[in-house]
Amino acid sequence: MIEIIYDASTVEDSCYIEVLPDKYKGKCWNASSIYFTEENFGYIMPAFEKCYKKFDYYSFNEIDIENWKLIIWELEKMKQYLSDNPNPHSLKDVLGFLFLNSEEEFLVNYDTNLKQLISMITEFQSWIIEKSASAKFISVLGM
Length: 143
Known about the structure:
By secondary structure, the protein is of the alpha+beta class. The chain has helices at residues 38-51, 65-83, 102-108, 110-132; strands at residues 16-20, 34-37, 60-64, 137-141. The chain has one domain. The protein has a 4-stranded antiparallel β-sheet. It is globular, with a radius of gyration of 15 Å.
């Protein structure tokens, strides 16, 4: 399932990306955070790499709201591309596939995965906009 996880108590191990609506303060698994599986975050990671040059998948990234505006826009372009029913074999030009079999697994249930990914991106954009009203930074706590 391609989705955002809102409850840290439902995650099964430590292989998740945490998005914290604040600066990192030495604590992970925050109640105010949202979480992505590695695979799901991987799909949208190119937006971070393009818009926030210091992005490090293995580190704690404290990203200011101005950079988040760029990321939101890049996610919107990604979402529009996906909405235009692209050739399935062109996805690797836009999405991130972290693992050797990621693209192949995405294509197995292409239509469902495409819809779920578009929905996840829309939901994430809304969450960022909501949190941006009160936070000066939103942190991506990597692996």
